[in-house]
Amino acid sequence: MFFASLIAALPDKYSLAKPNIDMATPPYTPAHLVNSEKPVTERWYIVFWVWDALKQKKVRKRCYKVNLKKTKMERLAYAKTRIAGINKLLAEGYHSNPKLLREKKAALYADRTKDYSIYDAFKYILPVVKNSKRPATFNSYNSCTNLFLEFCELAGWTGWKLRTLEKVDIISFLDYVQAPKEGKAGVSNASRNKYLSYLAAMFTMLQERGALDKNVCHGIKFLKEETGGNIAYTPEQIEVLKAAINEQNPRLWLFVSFMLYGFIRPAEIGRLQVRMINLKTKEIKLPGTITKNGKPRTVTISPHFAEYISSMSLELYRPDHYVFGINLVTGAIPIQKNYANLSHSKIARKLGFGKEYTLYSWKHTGVVLHYKAGIDIKTLQKQIGHQSLHETDIYLKSLDLYENSEIIDKSPAI
Asked: Where is each Core-binding (CB) domain found (predicted)?
């Protein structure tokens, strides 16, 4: 698809530069796999030595992406292909040239006065978004961009200058994404509002860099979003699932406890390190580098929550170890992507739970149980990590809960 990959990946620190035509093959040491004799709970990596054009000597490069593979067979297969590719480039004279890569990267941001077309403007700003956002967040921005450019192509605007866009054009796009297409319903008000937020943020970035005079998204109203839709488990469902999870994968239930008591999101739990947990102060310090909104958050550890954490004997591990590493076991390597979600889904589906019941439902369940046990909305706001009481109020309404300022503060046993 024309919009599927608007920008090429920016050069990373392992990128190699093409050799000059008259350049002799520089010295190098072929790539090979390290630690393959160890179990997959250990950290494997590919290492090679490549010629550095600036330092005029060989420098060591390492690649740790092999650890993204779950099984030993998958890692060995990945490493074999990766090593063959690296060694082929080294034999052809590819080398390290940091200065050249920096110049290429800088060229993406160099011209602030250019009168960009709509297409070129997004090609210019998406690398900025990529460098400042998490991969998952960037993917959302990129998807919005692809959809907006798709609309521009259909409208015949692809060659338009960015500065010619008006507020009515953005509204036309928002109407487009909400309109039914080929028998399918358009996006919800919530999705429409997210698209507006993404465009507004990128236009602000362009405005700050001199590529745009005004942000045409400003002044466009957000549509009212429907409440409800967040599903929590009932007490009966909790009992059934808890028993099954503890029987089949006890570590998964420990993972769930961080959602039930700490209201911590699965992605945040996956990046949680031992040093962030302090049972003496009864706090978990989540740095902005792992939270959804990029802001640091302090999670209070209740007595029942402390019992689960104590059972993990985290004091036996290094401070930089991940609380839930490979296969949910505490260790030096973070948990595999979607491992907890898939493990939970497998158990839930066998018990007859529909797809709407997910691992994330445990976070909603924890909020519901604590609210009904008497936790006040201000305390819930802090534990959830919301920036305002209004945000918490909307969330509670989505769970069919409503604020009660007279309830007392206590944490239930789950």
From this structure: 116-207
Give the other-Cβ count within 10 Å of 60's Cβ: 9
Full domain range(s) for residue 45: 1-110
SS3 403: coil
Q: Which residue has tokens 């209004």? A: 390
220 located within any domain: no
Question: Does residue 89 lie within any of the structural domains?
Answer: yes
338 and 248, same domain (yes or no):
yes
Same domain, 93 and 34: yes
Q: How many CB atoms lie within 10 A of CB 249?
A: 18
Do 244 and 326 fall into the same domain? yes
CA 3, CA 117: separation in Å to the nearest integer? 15
What is the rounded CA–CA span in Å between residue 33 and residue 86? 12
Buried b (16+ CB within 10 A) or exposed e, 333-365: bbbbeebbeebbbebbeeeebeeebbbbbbbbb
- Joined tokens for residue 117: 């077309």
Tokens of 103: 């110049």
| Domain final position from 209, 243, 275 | 209
Max CA distance (Å), the chain: 80
Question: Which pLDDT tens digit goes with each residue over 230-271?
Answer: 788 998 999 999 999 999 999 999 999 999 999 999 999 999
Taking phi first (over 0 means left), then psi (-120 to 50 degrees means alpha), and beta for anything else, what does residue 67 get? Answer: alpha
* Distance in angstroms (rounded) separating the CA atoms of residues 217 and 234: 42
* CB atoms near residue 177 (< 10 Å): 19
As a whole number of angstroms, the distance between CA 356 and CA 229 comes to 9
Count of beta carbons in the 10 Å neighbourhood of residue 247? 10
Sequential DSSP letters for 355-374: TT--TTHHHHHHHHHHHHHT
pTM strictly above 0.70: no
Q: What is the pLDDT of residues 146-199, one digit of tens each?
A: 999 999 999 888 788 999 999 999 999 999 999 988 778 888 888 899 999 999
Residues 6+ apart with CB under 8 A from 366: 259, 260, 261, 262, 263, 414
Pairing of strands 29-34, 277-278: unpaired
Residues 5 and 104 in one domain: yes
Q: How much of the chain is in helix, strand and coil states, percent to nearest 5? A: 50, 10, 40
